[in-house]
DNA sequence: CGAAGTTACATGCACATGCATTCAATGTCC
DNA sequence: GGACATTGAATGCATGTGCATGTAACTTCG
């Protein structure tokens, strides 16, 4: 790798860091202020809405999110405490937990989604970009 | 904003999140394992090396990094405890603190930088990208 | 069936972070 | 000069995170 290439990559990383910091900070703050949930909570609700059945097992949910298993466990616990999801035992595998959106969860997500879109629109431009070389 | 535009932005955000999570996690782990410092510590050392005098006031340092004032204060405290920087009072403003690289700090940074470059090269492609629309 | 290994989730713990506050030094205005 | 506001940095506190571990349920293999 040439020095020029290295420097380009470092610049790229700094841009990425700057962009992520700005957006995630603004997003977290906006969601917290307007809806009382953080970014992780919103992401979790979002995955549940995306799921056709609005019901996912913890393990599947964890696979979609950039959170450790323990962090997800606590995130879902917070959502349950807030009445936005319900945790129920899986009939077919009694180790697993099914997470289901409640009506309140659906509504909260719908409202928070508007905030999210607004914040993202304010900070990002739409062109899609292949940022990652390797997973 | 059209729905298509909104979706493009959300896709963009997800890509950004994915990329940031992957890279920052790998980077933090590599730096911690190989050199005993985290990403924030490395960033701070990096700013100090960039500075021609290798000496910055806390306030200036904070401006360059995506850390709160208190987080920077503790980051520098960790670096000082590790013997990588020194904190000295500013003569001209006795509220301010000057942060200076030690010889050990310079060496540690030089080594850590190789690790950083390697991790970034592994995960990022070099093309620069205008990710942010607004600060 | 029964023992050993694996999987799904929860939890104790350590730690980094942000917010609010504190404290000292500096600046401002009269 | 003296009162009040502002600034630079440190710290108490609450919180979110990851790692290691614990526990129950499932699986495999004899």
Automatic annotation (TrEMBL), chains A, B:
Asked whether the keyword Transcription is assigned, the reply is yes
Q: Which InterPro entries match?
A: HTH_MarR-typ (IPR000835), MarR/SlyA-like (IPR039422), Tscrpt_reg_MarR-type_CS (IPR023187), WH-like_DNA-bd_sf (IPR036388), WH_DNA-bd_sf (IPR036390)
Domain of life of the organism encoding this protein: Bacteria
Its keywords, alphabetically, are: DNA-binding, Transcription, Transcription regulation
Q: Where is the HTH marR-type domain?
A: 13-135
Tagged with keyword Transcription: yes
Record's protein name: MarR family transcriptional regulator
Lineage start: Bacteria, Bacillati, Actinomycetota, Actinomycetes, Streptosporangiales
């Amino acid at each position: 790798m040439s020095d020029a290439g290295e420097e380009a990559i470092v610049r790229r990383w700094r841009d990425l860091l700057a962009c992520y910091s700005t957006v995630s900070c603004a997003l977290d703050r906006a969601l917290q202020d307007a809806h009382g949930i953080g970014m992780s909570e919103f992401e979790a609700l979002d995955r549940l809405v995306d799921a056709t059945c609005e019901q996912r097992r913890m393990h599947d949910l964890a696979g979609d999110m950039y959170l450790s298993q323990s962090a997800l466990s606590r995130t879902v616990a917070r959502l349950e405490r807030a009445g936005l999801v319900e945790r129920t035992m899986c009939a077919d595998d009694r180790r697993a937990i099914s997470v289901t959106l409640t009506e309140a969860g659906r509504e909260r997500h719908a409202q928070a989604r508007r905030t999210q879109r607004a914040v993202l629109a304010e900070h990002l431009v739409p062109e899609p970009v292949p940022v990652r070389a390797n997973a």
